[in-house]
Amino acid sequence: MLETRAKFVRETWVKRCNKWIFVSDETNASFPTISFGTKKGRKHLTTKTMRAFDYIYEHHINDADWFLKADDDTYVIMENLRYLFA
């Protein structure tokens, strides 16, 4: 998945983010991600999301005014989102 769908996210709208973090079940030396050791599957998405927000709170809470959680099938127009939050 990292070399397919997540790659396109990184090459498109994520470029316009000030900072970004990819969370994944997989590790890949050529694609930096954070893994929390959660089990794969839709059944465990809530746990993975909670751990990701815990990580952001512990390590990056002062790095931004707001945070966005998006999946690899999401496309965000960052300029519009920034305008909305301004």
Automatic annotation (TrEMBL):
Q: Which PANTHER family match?
A: BETA1,3-GALACTOSYLTRANSFERASE (PTHR23033), GLYCOPROTEIN-N-ACETYLGALACTOSAMINE 3-BETA-GALACTOSYLTRANSFERASE 1-RELATED (PTHR23033:SF14)
Keywords, sorted A to Z: Glycosyltransferase, Membrane, Nucleotide-binding, Signal-anchor, Transferase, Transmembrane, Transmembrane helix
Q: Where in the cell is it found?
A: Membrane
InterPro entries in the record = C1GALT1/C1GALT1_chp1, Fringe-like_glycosylTrfase
What the entry lists under Pfam families is as follows: Fringe
Q: What is this protein called?
A: N-acetylgalactosaminide beta-1,3-galactosyltransferase
| Pathway assignment | Protein modification; protein glycosylation
Q: Which organism is it from?
A: Paralvinella palmiformis
Q: Give membrane topology per the record.
A: Single-pass type II membrane protein
Q: Which residues form the Fringe-like glycosyltransferase domain?
A: 3-84
Q: Which GO terms describe its cellular component?
A: membrane
According to the UniProt entry, its GO molecular function terms are: glycoprotein-N-acetylgalactosamine 3-beta-galactosyltransferase activity; nucleotide binding
Q: Which domain of life is it from?
A: Eukaryota
